[in-house]
Structure of Oxygenase:
Amino acid sequence: MTNIHYDNKHYELAENQSVLECLIKQGVPVPSSCRSGVCQTCLMQATAGTPPPSSQNGLKESLRLQNYFLACVCQPTEDLEITMPDDRHISAHATIRKLELLTDEIMLVELECASPINYRAGQFINLVHDSSHVRSYSIASVPRLDKHIQLHVRRLPHGRVSGWIHDELSFGQRVEMRGPAGDCFYVSGKPEQALLLIGTGSGLAPLYGILRDALDQGHQGPVRLFHGSRDLHGLYLMEELRELESRFPNFTYHPCLSGSEVPDGFAAGRVHEAALAETPQLKGWRIFLCGHPEMVKMARKKAFLAGASLQDIHADAFNVSHV
Ligand SMILES: Cc1cc2nc3c(=O)[nH]c(=O)nc-3n(C[C@H](O)[C@H](O)[C@H](O)COP(=O)(O)OP(=O)(O)OC[C@H]3O[C@@H](n4cnc5c(N)ncnc54)[C@H](O)[C@@H]3O)c2cc1C
Ligand code: FES
């Protein structure tokens, strides 16, 4: 039986229990989101004892060396003394340079970092609100094409951080951010490979970045982007995507509507089903799936069954946070 010591209290871990599960069960508020070692919202630090290497996957080397770990996937084999991360070591500051509604619900947020950060289009950063609310937002910008980091933030009803972003942030305000992190991005090296990008809602953010990154790097294979929403109000950047379509003959854009009204020129039904109907054989394709967790889960399964190799399927499910 292993124990964790946190904030002057001892907690005993049950068998197969993660540090996060144990603390939350005991009523300790630890931020979390994906609960699968992806979003890094549940970052903690061991001040005594060594966290298992598997709980440090995806962390920067500097954080690993300081014994930071992800509480949601940490099942320690020895006793640990742990603490919340020290913001001074892991956070950076950025200034809001633009806030613009892309749809009624989705806001374009542009951030200028106090010191430049290295990132890839499609990765995500974590925004910190009131010290304790940490949320991931995917990056729509491409470092060599765009001056500032761009995010697309969808307002959720009563959402703490998305509500703060939509209602309270203003031009010139400083915000705290962490990251970047994540491995959902374009890697050059196979310019002939076919790419299929499927997203719902603000899941277009990483896909828009990945798409422009790939085209700008001279990707030659076919590139198909399917963006889904219930109705027309939920689709955005249509003009920009049509413009890319006219500039790059290998790129096609497929807006898709799952509601009852589907004008000509739009695919009907759920976006991953429309994409799979258009492209039933996916052997050799590289696939990017972003947005609603249920869509990502179903699309991953269907893409695999259609012949895509698991290592060619990159995904970010926009799981909502738990506190
Ligand atoms: C890797 C990753 C990338 C992401 N990228 C993006 C992105 O690019 N764009 C984007 O818009 N989102 C993205 N997300 C989702 C984002 O991180 C947040 O989860 C989202 O913005 C909601 O946060 P919030 O604080 O506004 O809502 P929260 O306050 O966390 O609430 C979430 C939902 O739960 C409900 N809720 C809250 N408290 C209660 C309660 N007590 N009882 C019942 N219901 C409750 C709220 O109404 C809301 O609908 C991403 C997530 C991940 C994991
Ligand atoms: S990495 Fe732990 S909640 Fe996402």
